[in-house]
Amino acid sequence: MLPNPTLDQLQVFLTVAETGSFSAASRALNRAQSVVSYTIANLEAQLEMPLFERSGARQPKLTEAGKAMLEDARRILGDLQVMRARVKSLREGLEAEVSVAISVMVPSRAVVDVLHEFRERYPTVSLNLNVGELGMVMDLVLSGKVTIGIGGAVLKPDDSIVTERIGHSFMLPVAAPNHPLAAIGRPLTLGDVREEVQLVVTDASGRTKGRDFNVLSYKTWRISDIATKHQLIKAGLGWGGLPASIIHDDLRSGELIHLDLEAYEQGEYAIYSMRQLANPPGPAASWMIDAFRTRLSYCPNQADFHAEMAELRDTTQPLAAE
After folding, report:
1. Does pTM top 0.85 for this prediction?
2. Mean pLDDT of all residues in the chain?
């Protein structure tokens, strides 16, 4: 018959091993020493192997089998503590899981900061994270696949969705430093970009079907996601708009060049929190919305971003020869 140790037996075994003696374990557990010894004896009988060496030693010493069992006992009792904490949280109304969709337009640093604090605040709450492009975030909220969405592209009002503006973002037209557009030493005109390949992200949600945003070139490559578009632009395969939060470091290092193109609309646009009216968020999801609102309030606006880039250009330009 397979051994079937109880959680109480494992707890006693772990306490003896950690305190170093049966007497110390009895004090820690507030039990008689004889009860502790009897519990360990029963556990060893079930396992059909000794866990402690008792002969010739003043203090019990773990056998090789006992050392192996110790790690298993710690893991099992640790899982029990997690379950107890989860049950306590559920009784208090805390969600078991938060499902969230986040747009690639949301600054990655804000995402990392929020999720890091979320893990610290809600260790018992599981996270289901989806990253969406354009209308995908709203689609995931509408379908009920996620509890909350953080992103833009609220293109069509829906009475079943509650939206709240919590921040902003903006796109910048960029190219690799070896791209022909980067070599033009003046502000770019529409004619300059017409014949150059422009990389454009296609909205898989279909929510923006038939609508193009800032597509100015006659030649376009349609890309499925922002990450691929980012890499292709850096490789010099075309030009296009990318979220400022994604390319900040590339602009500072010179891996990408901002294109001075007046025809490209570079205005800020809102980032929203979204949820179904019939499915209000629980405590953890509500905290996450508030945390994103706080982090996004620290993000620079477009004027500050351009001022930073201009200052960087001024400090990196070579000094003129006297």
Report:
1. no
2. 83
